[in-house]
């Protein structure tokens, strides 16, 4: 294989190797995250819908990046054991940051109406329709940046952003003639430049932050504490899911 260059792509190519993408799912939607911290493939409201982030195929077809401002290659990446929660550790000249990415799962939502996206027999859990991305500085200080630029219909339709509250913490992306609306909820201060939402902050040791992208009426976390609680619920869901499977030779099997 050709050597990788500084941003994790193959020499002579604008794209990372396909094996380097991390895969997340909530059993209804999926996304692929490049080593650079950029969501480069995501179709909504289900995985058989058109893409809103399509940079995996076209670098101008939309993406959603969270990373240190001056770093594109992480120190390490892994799934939290027995889950579909991606953990990326970033080392910079001034400090270390851990980013966790997850498509949230929560309690069953549809007690008074049928789900329009759930295709299986109802259970006690349901997709929350939220992509959650959390940050925690574990050493020193790190300047972090967030850029979210959806482009609907495989990159053909750009979006516009508007604030949906009095502050800077909630933005809504929409496009004329399109039903899909994306809501970005965060404890950072959002700014908008055309079809791109941006935020930048310096995290010091012990500081945390979160960004949540949602696309239905299900509410996103409103604080880091709530985000962490819902991430933990999702981790428990995946542990339970594995416990009910039969994987006699799989390394995830713990008994």
Helix content: under 10%
Number of helices: 2
Distance between the amino and carboxyl termini: 37 Å
Q: Supply the CATH architecture.
A: Distorted Sandwich
Low-confidence stretches: 1-6
Main beta-sheet annotation? 15 strands, antiparallel
Radius of gyration: 18 Å
CATH superfamily: Glycoside hydrolase, family 65, N-terminal domain
Structural class call reads mainly beta
What is the total domain count?
1
Average pLDDT rating:
90
- Give the DSSP E fraction (strand runs of 2 or more residues): 35-45%
CATH topology label: Beta-galactosidase, Chain A, domain 5
Describe it for me?
- By secondary structure, this protein is mainly beta.
- The chain has one domain: Glycoside hydrolase, family 65, N-terminal domain (Beta-galactosidase, Chain A, domain 5), CATH 2.70.98.40.
- The chain is 9% helix and 42% strand.
- The chain has helices at residues 152-155, 224-243, and strands at residues 22-25, 30-33, 38-43, 51-53, 63-68, 76-79, 86-91, 95-107, 125-149, 157-158, 160-163, 170-174, 182-186, 191-193, 196-204, 208-214.
- It has a 15-stranded antiparallel sheet that branches.
- A hairpin with a 6-residue loop joins strand 11 (160-163) and strand 12 (170-174).
- The model is unreliable at 1-6 (pLDDT under 50).
Jot down its keywords.
255 residues; mainly beta; Beta-galactosidase, Chain A, domain 5; 15-stranded antiparallel sheet; 16 strands; 9% helix
